Amino acid sequence: MARTANPDTPAGRKILEVAGVLFYERGIGAVGVDLIADEAGTTKKTLYDRFGSKDALVAAYLKRREQRWEEFLDEWMRAHHPESGLDRVLAVLDAEEAWWAGSRRGCAFVNAHAELGESDHPGREVLREGKLRARAKFVALLAESGVADAETLGARLHMVYEGAMVNLTVGGMSDAFDEARETIRVLVGER
Amino acid sequence: MARTANPDTPAGRKILEVAGVLFYERGIGAVGVDLIADEAGTTKKTLYDRFGSKDALVAAYLKRREQRWEEFLDEWMRAHHPESGLDRVLAVLDAEEAWWAGSRRGCAFVNAHAELGESDHPGREVLREGKLRARAKFVALLAESGVADAETLGARLHMVYEGAMVNLTVGGMSDAFDEARETIRVLVGER
DNA sequence: AAGTAACCATACCGGTCGGTATACTCGCAG
DNA sequence: CTGCGAGTATACCGACCGGTATGGTTACTT
Questions:
Q1: Local confidence pLDDT in tens for the 191 residues of chain A
Q2: pLDDT, position A181
Q3: Confidence category of residue B92, pLDDT binned at 50, 70, 90
Q4: How confident is the model over B14-46, as pLDDT tens digits?
């Protein structure tokens, strides 16, 4: 008797894939489990057999989203192989712009935070971890390039990066990422 | 026959006040009109007589929130009367920290954007305008102090400010505002 | 041959959602 | 005294919500 079901089956993967699109595009609360099951060509029964609850599916969606973004970023870095510390940081912004590709929905984690709030939802910890990992990525890129005080500078650059996302999506400022890149140039001290 | 009712009545004001707390604290989708009516000591009938629909009430909530924040900020400025351009900008961050006062729910506009998405909701324009006004505030504070290129610098500082909100609330980074103030000092060029 | 994991199909549950309907009271202005 | 705007109280509506129940079909394993 499997107390915690294994979601890694063909139907389970399809459900997670469909949920990934629907949750992000329409919001977590706005998408019902019936719709996800239908859209995935399966049934609610199977969804609950694989994931146990909607909350667990949401948590799986967030984890998967984080994982997919990191894979995307790694591949972007491999394809564009920026060399200087500054270029490597700026490449993260380029990758993020490409990652969204026109969607105005913004950061999935910020959106999820708005819907999950201060509850004890299993997905909440994923959000916090995701932002900490994003910050750590900036710090690591700077440290690899031998930048002094990478910790402090990385935190500042990450903050600019997060602000650009908000300004682009909520504020509709289409040049937010250009501004962010310029701001980062200033903070890194390029002249 | 009033096609668009006037919400500015005792019951209407009470409903808007209660909705302001509930929508922010629990999220727009998570709060039903029945709850708002109950909590306001009135009835759903009155709510619909005043506002016409939940969407309209949400839009009114967002407008009111924007207005209250600007009043709060003005009063904060009057009470603390910072003088230098830098101090005036930093005071906005101080005010924002005081404005939240411990809540981890984050920016009401960012949260609303997550729930309203790309629909044609009447509240969406309020969000975009709100962020533009926030940016304009930074620009104005710098321009008043005779800073050169206030437009560019103001946009950058505003971006840092928005990033700090995200990192504090979603990332749980409790020192986000301290980092933002330091980053702003660097960008303004204080030494 | 028996067991089991994975899956599909359908029906059902209690609860909540946004929104409407009906009918009544009160205070005030013409 | 009549009309009306503002308000209360309650009942109702169809739709949808997350979650469960029942039952049957494959296919692979032991």
A1: 344 678 899 999 999 999 999 999 999 999 999 999 999 999 999 999 999 999 999 999 999 999 999 999 999 999 999 999 999 999 999 999 999 887 889 999 999 999 998 888 999 999 999 999 999 999 999 999 999 999 999 999 999 999 999 999 999 999 999 999 999 999 998 65
A2: 98
A3: very high
A4: 999 999 999 999 999 999 999 999 999 999 999
CB atoms A180 and B170 under 8 Å:
no
Let me know: does B44 contact B34? Beta carbons within 8 Å. yes
Footprint of strand C on the protein (CB under 7 A): A 1-2, 5-6, 9-12, 41-46, 49-50; B 29, 31-35, 44-45, 48, 53-55
Contacts of B111 in chain A (CB under 8 A): 113-114
Q: Quote the tokens at residue A92.
A: 């993260």
In chain A, DSSP finds a helix count (H) and a strand count (E) of 9, 0
The CA-based angle B143-B144-B147, given to 5 degrees, is 45
Residue B113 token pair:
């954007």
Residue with tokens 């950061």: A107
Counting beta carbons within 10 angstroms of the beta carbon of residue A92, is it exposed (0 to 12), middle (13 to 18) or buried (19 or more)?
buried
- Cα gap A21→A15, rounded to integer Å: 10
pLDDT, tens digit, 9 for 90 and up, residues A148-184? 999 999 999 999 999 999 999 999 999 999 999 999 9
pTM above 0.85, yes or no: yes
Q: A172 CB contacts (<8 Å, ≥6 apart)?
A: A104, B128, B131
State how far the Cα of B42 lies from the Cα of A97, in Å rounded to an integer: 47
- Pairwise CA distance, residues A138 & A157, whole Å: 7
Give the Cα separation of B126 and B131 in Å (integer).
9
Burial class (CB in 10 A: 0-12, 13-18, 19+), B103: exposed
Q: How far is CA B101 from CA B87, B104, B107, B122, in A?
A: 21, 9, 12, 29
